[in-house]
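Q: Got a minute? One more chain.
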Amino acid sequence: MSEPLSDLGTEPDPGPGTDRKRRRRRAGYGCLAVLIAAVVLAGGAFFAFNAGVDVIRDQFNPPEDYSGSGSGSVLVEVRDGDAASDIAATLLAEDVVKSAESFTDAAAEDPDSLGIQVGFYPMQRQMSAESALDILLDPENLIQSTVTFPEGWSVEQIVAQLAKKTDFSRKQYEKVLRSPDSIGLPAYAQNNPEGYLFPATYQISPESKPRTVLSSMVARYMEAASKLDLAPKSESLGVTPQEVMTIASLIQAEARFDEDFAKVSRVIYNRLEQPMALQFDSTVHYAVGRDGGVGTSAEDRRVDSPYNTYRFPGLPPTPIAAPGEQAIEAALNPADGPWLYFVTTNPDTGETKFAEGYREHLTNKAEFERWCAQSDNC
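A: Always. Here it is, folded:
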């Protein structure tokens, strides 16, 4: 039988003296709590003290550092975008400084460290951080071989510039170019570097060889091609990447103003679709070995060369020069328009006029001829 519900909450009488026992027990618990709290506080004070000691130790024991100006020699590169920590890591890896912190501390104390220039510096191993910083702060110590290649230069012009600006001869660069697969050309270049040595400014290391220099130029082209989605956009236009680069080289040679690039591109595509001979003076200049200029002679236009677009229809077999990013983009994105002709009516100003019909083109061409009659450049 179950017990009545009324009995479930009852307790037996605790008996005499029980309240005193409870008070003592509670008092004991209170002492124990105070003791534990004291231990915790003591432990916190201990850890706080140790942390303070660590701070004091850091203040009075600076990072490990070499002394003096070091010995031996090592070439150190400061790259574009390097922060003090990046430079410190480079110096540590070459055993120039004993710790990265010693250099970053020295740099933090010298506001001039924000002006360290990109380039190569001759340094010694096991230098004090201050000595290392002094070398990097002195522009006289900078070994900087900067070479700039403008848009529209041919391989021949680029090689001549490299031979002039570096310690290697034209023959040494030409030897590498005779094995073009060694510099990373894309397959569609068909082992011809023309057009794929990207025009830009390059910092050339004193340790660089002709192959590394040329490879870096091709690598820079590949970056631009990837950025512009050259391969997929070529396919959507119904042309190959190599044909796009050839078109881009023609645009680079013929267009002067930003607004003309996409329009020249459209003229090329329109004439190829007709089909019509391109009749570009720039390709004839390439065929006869002339670096630009104004117009062509009748003799020039008779030259038997696949680059003579007066005699041979379609595109020339390769690019005629290295186009820049703007020209490549124009080749991938021609303007909308019916133009089949264009002529630079005033080469001094670069003014170029576009025409759909031949009669209009003849009017524009007559304007160029009037300019030419008054100029010594024809």
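A: Residues 237 and 332 are 8 Å apart (CA to CA).
Q: Perfect, thanks.
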